[in-house]
Amino acid sequence: MSAPKEHDGRGVLDPVLTELRRTNFAGRQVSLLEGALVVTAAGTIALRGGAPVDAAVLSGIGALGWADDLLEPRQRRAGRAVSKGLRGHLGALRRGSVTTGAAKAFGIPALALVGAAMAPRPRGGGMILADAALAAGCANLANLLDLRPGRALKVVLPTAAALAARAPAADTRARSGRSLALAALVPGALALPTDLREAGMLGDAGANVLGAAMGTAAARTLPVPGRLALLSVVVALTLASERVSFSAVIDATAALRAVDRLGRRDPGAGAGTGTASGAGAEPEQSPGTEPAPEAGPGQEQR
Prior knowledge:
The chain has a two-stranded antiparallel ribbon with strand order 1-2. The chain is built from twelve helices and two strands, in the order αββααααααααααα. The protein is mainly alpha-helical. A hairpin with a 5-residue loop joins strand 1 and strand 2.
């Protein structure tokens, strides 16, 4: 009798890895597995730092991002229209359709509010709302920047490093902020080489979680004027993203273009048809789908 045929783990994992595969702006195959590992690592670091509520908030934000990453490509493959940008998601809501993007638009601020309300003291009523807005705004901004390899990480990493390097204070609030800065810094640093090589991508889940961890760390470690100033910048950039393309601005500015392309592969080699103009942070088209229609503001592909 012949021996039973052996099955290795790859056969079981292949369908999962295929589902996580995307085509990026240059037509190269990347994997959302990077984002999954980032979400897991960030939540673990927050939990080990003695902040179970923060870990739960980051995990919830990651789950909302995963829903957007995984369900939207299925809608495309089924031939259903996909809403793009904040205005597109709100328009779908007015028509009675709840998109994964709309779930994020409401779910992430709600989770950020829970985290701000249950943060270590001192905290005040008005600043709880501001801190929640800062965390949610940074989560969204990181996603808006995650349109080219390494771009979001080049903003998150130095910011998280600066917050983590602040001298640990005696109060619990500042220590929790440093832990959250590390929850953005360590997974982001580990993901950077894979992201720049275009072997993986953060996706909505990874970008949202790193941005939320960074924003919450800022809310816990910066003084009130610094938090409000940072919130103003985040709000201004978010509003601008609905009208202008971050990629177009970066490409037209020599210094920004040099930093943006530092460490990246040549975009010309293996370039495909996945490029579109405008700003935004929607997932790329899935394997086997038709190229997405040309996009406007709020709709740029990675």
